[in-house]
Amino acid sequence: MATHARARLRLLKPYDRAEAVRGLEAFSHVWLIFVFHRTAGRWSPTVRPPRLGGNRRVGVFASRSPFRPNPLGLSLVELLAIDACDGVLLTFGGVDLLDGTPVLDVKPYLPFVESRPAARTGFVDGVPTPMTVRFAARAQAELDCYTARWPDLAELICEVLAQDPRPAYADDPLRRYGLRLYDLEIKWHCADRQAIVDSIETVAGG
Q1: Adjacent-strand bridge partners of 197
Q2: What topology is assigned to 7-114 in CATH?
Q3: CB atoms within 10 A of CB 169
Q4: Which CATH architecture does the domain made up of 132-202 adopt?
Q5: What is the C-alpha radius of gyration for the chain, rounded to an integer number of angstroms?
Q6: How much is the average pLDDT of 81-104?
Q7: Whole-prediction pTM
């Protein structure tokens, strides 16, 4: 989990009432039910999960693919703050949603009910070994330019890349990858299980 990936959710009328979140502050984590709004209307009965190398297919209901008959997602996030002074504004950590993602519901997480450490996990076998992350000189200089705006940017980049977001079949040390965080494009490559950040640049029009 990228704990420094933070987001705010403002409840819309008529749900933005303080009593609607009464008692929620007692929970450390919540489930967010959301819409994969960038994939709505596109689905396939089978998908190719990156963890299987992008070659083997499984049924869409045996995956967490966003290309679903009903494009609904479920995400477990940390509840960091509740501001109910003017409507309701919730702040979360460990978020894996895009900016503007429609959230349909918020439900408290109950570990004694919903945590099953002995559950079988299908083709998702075990916990991946985290990669180490370092910044090339150019990327470090660029990072310093953005820390005033995003003080936790370095931590967030490290948390995301440590999880090795490459497809399972990727092992070319010369290949460069890109990922989007905020309005930044992070370019990086991998060598000997180490993610090396090459550049951090503002996305045009971002």
Answers
A1: 135, 188
A2: Elongation Factor Tu (Ef-tu); domain 3 (2.40.30)
A3: 11
A4: 2-Layer Sandwich (3.30)
A5: 19
A6: 93
A7: 0.80
